Amino acid sequence: MSSSMARLRIASLIFRHRRGRCSSCLSNPINSHFINIPNYYSTYVSNSSFDDSPQKVKTQLGFFPRVPFSTVPETGAVKQDAGGEKEDNVVKSAEVDLGLGDGEGFGEVASRDPVEIYRSFRDGETREKQTREDLDVLVEVFRGFTKSPWAVNQALGIYIGASFFPTAARKFRNFWFKNCGTDVSKYLVKLGPGREADEFLFPVFIEFCLEEFPDEIKRLRDMIASADLTNPHTWFPFARAMKRKIVYHCGPTNSGKTYNALQRFMEAKKGVYCSPLRLLAMEVFDKVNSLGVYCSLLTGQEKKHVPFSNHVACTVEMVSTDELYDVAVIDEIQMMADPCRGYAWTRALLGLKADEIHVCGDPSVVDIVRKICFDTGDELVEQRYERFKTLVVEAKTLLGDLSNVRAGDCVVAFSRREIFEVKLAIEKQTKYRCCVIYGALPPETRRQQACLFNDQDSKFDVLVASDAIGMGLNLNIRRVIFYNLAKYNGDKVVPVPASQVKQIAGRAGRRGSWYPEGLTTTLNKGDLDYLIDCLRQPFNDVKKVGLFPFYEQVELFAGQFNDITFTQLLEKFSQNCRLDGSYFLCRHDHIKKVANMLEKVQVLSLEDRFNFCFAPVNIRDPKAMFHLMKFASSYGQKIPVNIAMGMPKGSAQSDKELLDLETRHQVCSMYLWLAQQFKGDTFPYKKKAEEMATNIAELLGESLTKVTWEPESRQGHKPKADKKAGYERPQSVIKYFDQKKRQGSSRCDSSKMIAA
Question: Which residue of 25, 296, 308, 456 has the smallest Cβ count within 10 Å?
Answer without folding.
Answer: 308
